[in-house]
Design goal:
alpha+beta; 10 strands; globular
C-alpha cells in the first residue's frame, strides 16, 4: 500500500472553497424555504381532509405571527398530550416548548374543523368532555397542528418536525399520516434531504406510528445509536426518513 501523498496548498485551498461553497448552497436552501409564507400553496389537494367521518381544512402559520388564542391553544394541547409522556420532565420541557413555539423560524400547519359539518358528524364528546374545550378563539375550532422548521443536521438540510399534535377526537382517522405525507412533500419540494423528529420513548403509540406505519428509523445521531450507554439514560429517540444517498449516509446508516 503506497503512502498517502499530503495535500498541496492549492488542493487544500480548492477543498476549502468546495466546502464553503456547499455550506453556502445549503444556507441558501434553508433561507429560501423558510422565507416562503405559505407552503400549502403548492399542495392544494392537501388543503382539505374529508375522510373517515372527519372534515377538516389546513392553514399555514409562523411562530412570530401567532395570535393570543392560538398560543393558548398550542400550550393547552401540548399539556394534554405531552405531560404524560414527559412525566417529571414536563415542567422544564413546557418552558422550552413555549419559547420554541414563538420562534421566528417556526412554521405551522394548523388543522381546523370544517364548519360545513353537521352537528351529527362532529365528534362532540370525548371521554365525557366537549372536544372543543381547548379552542377559545373565534372561527372554526382548531383540532391540531404541526410545528416544523428548516434546519441543518450533519451538513444535511432537513425539515425537523418539532410537534405533531392532534386532539383525541380526530385521532385514529388517518389525519396524522396525511399531515406527515404533506410535510414530506414540503421537504422534497424545498430540496431537503430528510424529515426528522424526536419522540419520547414512553410514547409507545407515537413510536409505533412513526416507525411501523410511516417507516421512519432511529437516526445514527440518536443517543441510543451514538452510544448505547448514554442512550439508555436518555428519554427520547431521534427518528428520520432520508430521501437521497448523502442524507441516508449521514443520518441513517452506519457503514
Amino acid at each position: 500500500m503506497e503512502p498517502r501523498r499530503p495535500q498541496s496548498s492549492k488542493e487544500k485551498k480548492m477543498k476549502r472553497k468546495e466546502v464553503l461553497g456547499k455550506k453556502k448552497a445549503i444556507d441558501e436552501l434553508i433561507k429560501s424555504a423558510s422565507a416562503e409564507k405559505d407552503h400549502l400553496v403548492s399542495f392544494q389537494p392537501f388543503r382539505h381532509y374529508d375522510r373517515n367521518g372527519l372534515s377538516v381544512y389546513l392553514e399555514s402559520g409562523s411562530g412570530d405571527k401567532l395570535s393570543s388564542p392560538i398560543k393558548q391553544y398550542i400550550q393547552k394541547l401540548l399539556k394534554v398530550n405531552m405531560e404524560g409522556p414527559y412525566g417529571s420532565e414536563w415542567p422544564t420541557e413546557e418552558k422550552v416548548k413555549r419559547r420554541e413555539m414563538v420562534a421566528t423560524e417556526a412554521r405551522y400547519v394548523f388543522v381546523r374543523e370544517s364548519s360545513k359539518q353537521s352537528d351529527d358528524e362532529i365528534p362532540s364528546k370525548v371521554e365525557g368532555k366537549d372536544s372543543h374545550v381547548l379552542w377559545m378563539g373565534e372561527g372554526d375550532p382548531l383540532v391540531g397542528f404541526v410545528h416544523y422548521r428548516f434546519i441543518v443536521e450533519e451538513e444535511i438540510p432537513v425539515v425537523y418536525v418539532y410537534e405533531l399534535q392532534l386532539e383525541s377526537c380526530v385521532q385514529g382517522k388517518g389525519l396524522g399520516k396525511f399531515l406527515m405525507q404533506l410535510i414530506e412533500l414540503i421537504a422534497r419540494k424545498n430540496h431537503m434531504g430528510a424529515v426528522m423528529l424526536t419522540v419520547q420513548k414512553t410514547n409507545q403509540s407515537a413510536m409505533n406510528f412513526y416507525m411501523n406505519k410511516l417507516r421512519y428509523i432511529v437516526s445514527i445521531i440518536s443517543p441510543s445509536r451514538v452510544d448505547p450507554l448514554i442512550g439508555a439514560e436518555k428519554s427520547y429517540e431521534i427518528l428520520c426518513k432520508a430521501f437521497d444517498f448523502e442524507a441516508k449516509a449521514k443520518l441513517e446508516v452506519k457503514f
